[in-house]
């Protein structure tokens, strides 16, 4: 949650401006006081009434409007963070050149360097990769502006490629991460985070996997990176990528995760391992069809014409239970995750207790399938060997609670 934070949102004339309404709504839901500066062209895409209805504040637009002629100074002094989303190529290039010919660009020029300033670009692919735009982005980054990446996909003009505005939830995570940069941690911790789900290959086309998207792990990684902790990220290929982490290594199946995790733990003195990856308990080793046995994984696609296929699975060892043995640093803090599928609180607690005992980890984060909606997980319960410590409604709150625990207890791990 971002209670009592004052966020100044700039909106420019992009067709993606409608997404800014959802971003504003999410900021308000997080307890923020939001004020909006919109260019005249932005108001061709979204109306003042919608913005005012969401924020409870008037929309600022005119640099010379009576009673607001000092808005470019007062608003930038007022806010804890300034973000332009979406930011057109025109706005980016003007700001990088120091042009201040309207209220929004004047705010950009008048900002205090201590106030986080984020820009979320949105434009056609060719406009995004135009040398003028790329030079402006590089210049802004050099000036200390946080220029967010763009997504890739289908654009409003019909083209496909980069330049697409990031989804509001991702932008929200960048805002959260940059707000907490002001308050530095008590001590820096070297952290390894695993993310995503393993894929146990059957024949190169088919595989056994799970529900994991890597979203929770990516938000944890963004938080700890923004706080200044060095973060290594070991992720499945299709998991959500954290925007603030550069050192990312990928795994495919159980064997590659186990091997790469072991190598990384042996080569690095991690203080903390957050093992969020969803690991397959079983891997396919053979398939029987029409009394013919095929070793798995198969190099050829198995015909879909066969019936009554039987797959033999072997049980995999628990990686979580071996992390301390793999690690070159024995006093390492280990966090495991227990994903349950039961409404019975006693069954949930018993599952956590079993994992704490068998895996010899310090903390377990329990979450349940019933709290998962559209791939987004809510409600996390944090346990140690003495029982539940606290609960969190989202990954950001969980990350704050984990950091507080790490700062107090690292070096005392079992």
Description:
The protein is of the alpha/beta class and 414 residues long. The chain has two domains: 6-182, Flavin prenyltransferase-like (Rossmann fold, 3-Layer(aba) Sandwich), CATH 3.40.50.1950; 191-282 and 317-409, 3-Layer(aba) Sandwich (Rossmann fold). The chain is 33% helix and 26% strand. The protein is built from 13 helices and 23 strands. It has helices spanning 17-29, 48-55, 71-78, 89-96, 103-110, 125-129, 131-142, 168-179, 215-226, 254-267, 319-326, 345-359, 395-409, and strands spanning 6-11, 33-38, 59-60, 81-87, 117-121, 146-147, 151-154, 160-164, 191-195, 200-201, 207-208, 231-236, 248-251, 272-275, 282-289, 292-295, 310-315, 333-340, 363-368, 372-373, 376-377, 380-384, 387-392. The strands form six sheets. It has an eight-stranded mixed sheet, with helices on both faces. Strand 7 and strand 8 (160-164) form a beta hairpin. Helix 9 crosses helix 13 (395-409). The longest helix is centred in the C-terminal third of the chain and has 15 residues, at 345-359. The protein starts with 5 loop residues before the first strand and ends in a 5-residue tail after the last helix.
């Amino acid at each position: 949650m971002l209670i009592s934070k004052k966020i100044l949102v700039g909106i420019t004339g992009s067709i993606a401006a409608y997404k800014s309404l959802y971003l504003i709504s999410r900021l308000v839901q997080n307890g923020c006081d939001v004020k909006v500066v919109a260019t005249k062209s932005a108001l061709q895409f979204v109306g003042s009434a919608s913005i005012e209805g969401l924020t409870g504040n008037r929309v600022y637009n005119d640099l010379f409007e009576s009673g607001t002629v000092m808005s470019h100074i007062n608003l930038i002094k007022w806010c804890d963070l300034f973000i332009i989303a979406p930011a057109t190529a025109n706005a980016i290039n003007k700001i990088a050149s120091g042009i201040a010919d309207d209220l929004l660009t004047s705010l950009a020029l008048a900002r205090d360097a201590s106030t986080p300033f984020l820009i979320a670009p949105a434009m056609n692919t060719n406009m995004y990769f135009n040398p003028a735009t790329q030079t402006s982005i590089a210049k802004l980054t050099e000036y200390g502006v946080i220029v967010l990446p763009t997504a890739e996909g289908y654009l409003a003009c019909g083209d496909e490629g980069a330049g697409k505005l990031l989804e509001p939830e991702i932008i929200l995570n960048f805002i959260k991460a940059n707000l907490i940069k002001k308050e530095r941690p008590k001590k820096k911790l070297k952290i390894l985070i695993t993310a995503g789900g393993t894929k146990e290959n059957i024949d190169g086309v088919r595989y056994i996997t799970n529900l994991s998207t890597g979203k929770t792990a990516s938000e944890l990684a963004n938080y700890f990176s923004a706080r200044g902790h060095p973060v290594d990220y070991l992720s499945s290929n299709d998991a959500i990528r954290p925007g603030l982490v550069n050192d990312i290594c990928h795994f495919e199946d159980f064997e590659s995760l186990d091997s790469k995790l072991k190598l990384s733990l042996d080569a690095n003195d991690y203080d903390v391992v957050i093992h969020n990856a969803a690991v397959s308990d079983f891997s396919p080793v053979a398939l029987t069809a029409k009394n013919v046995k095929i070793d798995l994984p198969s190099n050829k696609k198995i015909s879909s014409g066969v019936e009554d296929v039987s797959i033999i699975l072997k049980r995999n060892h628990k990686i979580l239970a071996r992390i301390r043995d793999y690690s070159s640093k024995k006093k390492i803090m280990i966090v495991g995750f227990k994903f349950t599928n039961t409404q019975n609180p006693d069954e949930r607690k018993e599952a956590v207790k079993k994992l704490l005992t068998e895996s010899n980890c310090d903390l377990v984060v329990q979450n349940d399938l019933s709290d998962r909606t559209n791939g987004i997980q809510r409600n996390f319960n944090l346990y140690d060997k003495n029982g539940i410590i606290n609960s969190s409604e989202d990954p950001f709150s969980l990350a704050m609670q984990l950091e507080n625990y790490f700062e107090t207890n690292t070096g005392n791990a079992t």
